[in-house]
Amino acid sequence: NYGSWADDMEAYLKTLDLWDVTDDPTAAPLPEDATNLTTEERKEVRDWEKCKGQASGQIWLAVEDGQKVHVKDVKNDPAKMWLKLKEVHVQRKPGTHFNAYDMLLGLRKLEGESLASLMARADKAMQDIRALRPKDFTIESLDNDLASMALIRALPPSSLILPSEYNNFVSSLLLLDSLDLSKLQSTFQNEESQRFARGV
Which Pfam families does the record associate with it (predicted)? Predict the structure, then answer.
């Protein structure tokens, strides 16, 4: 799971004092005159580059072999490696967002599960939702998401015996660029018109 890996890796890089070069490349030392460095500036730049190399190496070693293809071209820059991995694994698409909400709202205590474990799973589901939110997320955005989620979840689910007549419709909804409520309502109305025209 990328979310857990990223949290653990961030903590590990912080213990090695390598998080700044990964998280904030703008913190790099900027000499006044790049062509004529002072002794102190030269040391700062050398130390920064050394930290970048160490952070890159730690990230490379922590990434599974099958995932290294994503960062191979940027393996000398820990900030770019970090962003690339996030870009690959945290896809902020409606389907991913819907599934994260569905996981949270579908939580049920498992047989024999402790309440502490249930709370931990709820916290993890909430962290996943937060990771998928855009930076400009507001209460209005949450209202939009919840109303959209309610509409999609209200459609009849499939069973093992009989697939839902709405399976294809739900799949197409989750491929939309966004789950904007007005766009979703328009899509629902269009689906209803199509079904009426086909006599479904």
Answer: Retrotran_gag_2
